[in-house]
Amino acid sequence: MEDLARHSGATVRTIRAYQDRGLLPRPGRRGRANLYDDSHLTRLRQISALLERGYTLASIKELLAAWDEGRGLSGVLGLVSEVERPWSEEVPERLSLDELDGLFGKGSARSEDAVAEAVELGVLVPLPERPGEFLVPSPQELAVAAELHRAGVPLLALTGHLRELRAQVEHIAARFMDFTGQHIFGRCPQSGPTDEEASEAAGLVRRLRPLAKQTVDAELARAMRTFASRSLREHLRQGAYGAEGEGGGGGGGQGVGQPGAGIAEAADSTETSASDEAAGSAEAADNAPVTEPVLLPAGTLASVRALVGAEQAAAFIASAAEREVHARTMDRLAAGS
Fold first, then answer.
1. Could you tell me where the Gly residues compositional bias lies (predicted)?
2. Most exposed: 16, 151, 260, 262, by fewest CB within 10 Å?
């Protein structure tokens, strides 16, 4: 074994470990002596070359098993390389603590809890040979976090959100693999693939690789539009009907007495309510719609009057409420389909 170690450049301990893992065949025997030949030396060189290319020992064991079964390594190596190469075109960067401070604000990088969370999540990878510096596998992800932090999101809230997001994205990835495995790769032979079959599978992976990202991008865009619009409508509705204690136009207003009202009345005693205006014009009609006074902040009513005029204020408020009711009805119907 010492001679094999000397010729291969591997240590005796490493050779024993490879034998225990099934990567290196056991030596032949001559009496009580172990015999190693050129096949052992070749295998050690193969393992070393694959390790340099980034393969794990588990992957190397599978590749060498394919080689031993006579299936060739070129196709299998191409398949493994296609699957295990980065699924992003991003180039990792190095950042120091001072540079992190520049991104997130002075003192941010000195937050031990936030840095520890980022390291645990793999957003930052410490460089042992350069204390105080980190490898950033995804500069885009870090840039998004920095922008959100500048907008007011606390650092630990960002890492908590990333944990939740990562779990959901990993679920999506697992479902995509199950889907393609069932309908595409399930047709591949269950036993080890031949060199030609492995090359064909690598081509499939190459074509399918961008489809996963494109599908998620399209669905995320759709969902963001739906929920952003819904959130905005809810925010505007609360601002219009739920504000309490806010005044305007020279007098203090009162909050909405009952949420969801459509026709409003200002609490300011100096202003005529929108419902009174609507009722005044409706009294002359035989089939007048039934109106109900609901309190509305005086400032809101003043803004509506400034926008459409006092005569159209009631109709404008009623129309806005009807549109909101219609939109929420459509949302419920869409969610139930």
1. 242-260
2. 151
Cα 7 to chain centroid distance, Å, stands at 49
Q: Is the pTM of this model over 0.85?
A: no
CATH number at residue 65: 1.10.1660.10
Q: What is the reported pLDDT for 292?
A: 75
> Pick the residue with more confidence: 116 or 196?
116
Residues 167 and 92 in one domain: yes
| Per-residue pLDDT, 285 | 45
Residue type, 180: T
In a domain, 210, yes or no: no
CA separation for the pair 328, 86 (Å, rounded): 43
The domain boundary, picked from 165, 180, 195, lies at 180
Single out the residue in 38, 58, 84 at which a domain terminates: 84
For residue 270, is it within any domain? yes
**Residue ranges making up the domain that contains 38:** 2-84
Instruction: Tell me the sheet residues that pair with 125.
Output: 135
229 lies in a domain?
A: no
Residue 254: the pLDDT is 38
Tens of pLDDT, residues 257-273: 333 333 333 334 334 44
